[in-house]
Amino acid sequence: MIIKPSDEYLELLNKAVARELEVSAQYILQHTKMEKLLRKVIRENYLLDETTYDIIGKLLKELAIEEMKHLAQIMERIYLLGGTATTKPDKIVIGNSLREFIELGLKAEQEALELYRLVINEAKKVGDIKTWRLFTEIYRQEEEHLIKFQDFQEIEEEPDLGETPESEWRKIFNPEYITLLNKALASEISAIIQYTNQHEKAEGLEEMRKLKSSLEVVREKNKAKIISELLKKVFMQEMEHMEKISERIFEIDREALAQVDPLPEIGNSVNDFIELDRAAEDYAIRLYRTIIAEANKLGDIKTKVLFEEIIQQEEEHYWDFDDFLP
Is the separation of the CB atoms in 128 and 7 below 8 Å? Predict the structure, then answer.
């Protein structure tokens, strides 16, 4: 073991994981909500090639990606230290306006800097130089995020034109149907957390990195490494699914909910990963078939096509994991 971390030290690092899980989801969902907000404000926006919403939306997506990178780095470090990374994000709040997005971003980044100062100080105290360097760099980037939000702090709030008037064709988007779509979004968030955590566990945990056979030594990879590489590809696709599903919910003028359901399960071995991830894909496929059938019944062709595209990738993920069953 690199150092012998205390439970309190690992708990502090896991607070950073929970925060990174929260803000990466917060920023990507705010990004996808921009089109909904744009439709409810001054008409002159339609005369512009690029609006305030487009610019801040791009920024939020960029920040979400950076926060996901921080998340992966912190998780891997926890496993290298012999700990277990949490799968529970802090409470995710999206907001309902451009001004709220900025205020929530400011608050999130200020809280991050406060927490990461504690981590940096504790890492220095226990002689964990690698963690000290990691969080010093993350701190620098979070400070840049804070400055970017500060740049928009005084932005004028555009008038809200209120709710889109209901119409006959939009009545198909009933509460039960939106609940079903949000269930799909929750399953994608769950899968992202599960696969990211497993990827970093395979990369960081000593037992999973060991090369035992001559072939593994020559190839410089074992089964855990191969699964880790697969997981990285899969969770990147799940991120795309999360973005597309939330975009669709906001597009039809409903609210996307940032939930984690079912609860992610990590497992303690590569074979655990394979069985748990195969089960997660099985759950998604069955859920998405239900959504496709319901969309078809309601005449919601765009959602039907979206989930038909997503389910093809989910089936590929299922067979990828199935190929590695012990």
Answer: no
Give the pLDDT confidence of 28-37 residue by residue, as tens digits.
Answer: 999 999 888 8
Instruction: Give the 3-state secondary structure of residue 6.
Output: coil
pLDDT digits (tens, 9 = 90+) for 241-270: 999 999 999 999 899 999 999 999 999 999
Sequence-ordered list of residues with C-beta below 8 angstroms from that of 5, at least 6 positions apart, any chain: 81, 82, 83, 126, 128
Topology at the third CATH level for domain 164-326: Ferritin (1.20.1260)
CATH topology of domain 1-162: Ferritin (1.20.1260)
User: How many whole angstroms separate alpha carbon 79 and alpha carbon 202?
Assistant: 9
SS3 content of the chain, % helix, strand, coil (to 5): 75, 0, 25
Alpha carbons within 13 angstroms on the beta-carbon side of residue 15 total 16
Which part of the chain is CATH 1.20.1260.10? 1-162, 164-326
DSSP 171: G
Q: What is the DSSP string of 277-322?
A: HHHHHHHHHHHHHHHHHHHHHHT-HHHHHHHHHHHHHHHHHHHHHH
State the pLDDT at residue 45.
64
Residue 160 pLDDT: 67
Angle made by CA atoms 30, 36, 40, in degrees to the nearest 5:
125
Length of the chain: 326
Q: Is the pLDDT of residue 46 over 70?
A: no
Tell me what pLDDT residue 260 has.
Answer: 95
45-79 residues labelled b (16+ CB within 10 A) or e (exposed): eeeeeebbbeebbebbbebbebbbebbbbbbbbbb
Query: Is residue 298 exposed (0-12), middle (13-18) or buried (19+ Cβ within 10 Å)?
Result: middle
**Is 202 within 8 Å of 208 (Cβ atoms)?**
yes
* pLDDT at residue number 42: 63
Q: Is the pLDDT of residue 146 over 80?
A: yes
